[in-house]
Automatic annotation (TrEMBL):
<keyword id="KW-0820">tRNA-binding</keyword>
<dbReference type="InterPro" id="IPR036920">
    <property type="entry name" value="Ribosomal_uL16_sf"/>
</dbReference>
<dbReference type="InterPro" id="IPR047873">
    <property type="entry name" value="Ribosomal_uL16"/>
</dbReference>
<dbReference type="GO" id="GO:0005840">
    <property type="term" value="C:ribosome"/>
</dbReference>
<dbReference type="GO" id="GO:0000049">
    <property type="term" value="F:tRNA binding"/>
</dbReference>
<protein>
    <recommendedName>
        <fullName>50S ribosomal protein L16</fullName>
    </recommendedName>
</protein>
<dbReference type="GO" id="GO:0006412">
    <property type="term" value="P:translation"/>
</dbReference>
<comment type="function">
    <text>Binds 23S rRNA and is also seen to make contacts with the A and possibly P site tRNAs.</text>
</comment>
<dbReference type="InterPro" id="IPR016180">
    <property type="entry name" value="Ribosomal_uL16_dom"/>
</dbReference>
<dbReference type="GO" id="GO:0003735">
    <property type="term" value="F:structural constituent of ribosome"/>
</dbReference>
<dbReference type="GO" id="GO:1990904">
    <property type="term" value="C:ribonucleoprotein complex"/>
</dbReference>
<dbReference type="Pfam" id="PF00252">
    <property type="entry name" value="Ribosomal_L16"/>
</dbReference>
<comment type="similarity">
    <text>Belongs to the universal ribosomal protein uL16 family.</text>
</comment>
<dbReference type="GO" id="GO:0019843">
    <property type="term" value="F:rRNA binding"/>
</dbReference>
<keyword id="KW-0687">Ribonucleoprotein</keyword>
<keyword id="KW-0699">rRNA-binding</keyword>
<keyword id="KW-0689">Ribosomal protein</keyword>
Length: 136
C-alpha cells in the first residue's frame, strides 16, 4: 500500500474540511479528470484499487495520473480495548480530499471508454465525484 517514506510526527490530529480546494483543482496532465465533490478521507487501499482499474484500462493506449497521495496517518485502537490510555496505533494512511480536488487524470482513450473507467473508479471511492474535461 501507499505510505510516506518518513514523517516528522507519527500521529496527527484529524483536522477538518472548511473550504473548497485551493490547489489541485485544475487538470494539469490529461484531457479528462475525476474531481471530488464531497470532502472525505480516501484510504490507501482505495487508491490502490483505482490504480489497478486505471492500469488495466490504459494498458494498450493511454496514460493515467494519480493526483493524490495518502500522507495522513489514521489511528485505530485494537478490538475490545476500553477507552482511555492514549491514542491508538497507526492502522493505515489516508489522503485528505476537499471538494473540487482533482483525484485522477486520464488521456489517450475515447469518450465512452473514459466514462466507463471513471464509473468503475468512482464506485471504489468513499467520496462523490464528477468527470471534468479540459477546455481546448
Amino acid at each position: 500500500m501507499l505510505a510516506p517514506k518518513r514523517q516528522k510526527y507519527r500521529k496527527q490530529f484529524r483536522g477538518s474540511w472548511r473550504r473548497i480546494a485551493v490547489k489541485g483543482e485544475k487538470l494539469n496532465f490529461g484531457n479528462v479528470g475525476l474531481k471530488a465533490i464531497t470532502p472525505g478521507w480516501i484510504k490507501d487501499r482505495e487508491i490502490e484499487a483505482t490504480r489497478v482499474v486505471l492500469a488495466r484500462a490504459t494498458r494498450k493506449s493511454g496514460k493515467y495520473w494519480i493526483r493524490i497521495f495518502p500522507d495522513k496517518p489514521f489511528t485505530k485502537k485494537p478490538p475490545e480495548v476500553t477507552m482511555g490510555s492514549g491514542k491508538g496505533e497507526v492502522s493505515h494512511f489516508v489522503a485528505s480530499v476537499t471538494p473540487g480536488r482533482v483525484l485522477f487524470e486520464i488521456d489517450g482513450l475515447d469518450e465512452a471508454q473514459v466514462k466507463n473507467v471513471f464509473r468503475v473508479v468512482s464506485s471504489k471511492l468513499s467520496v462523490r465525484t464528477k468527470i471534468i474535461h479540459k477546455n481546448i
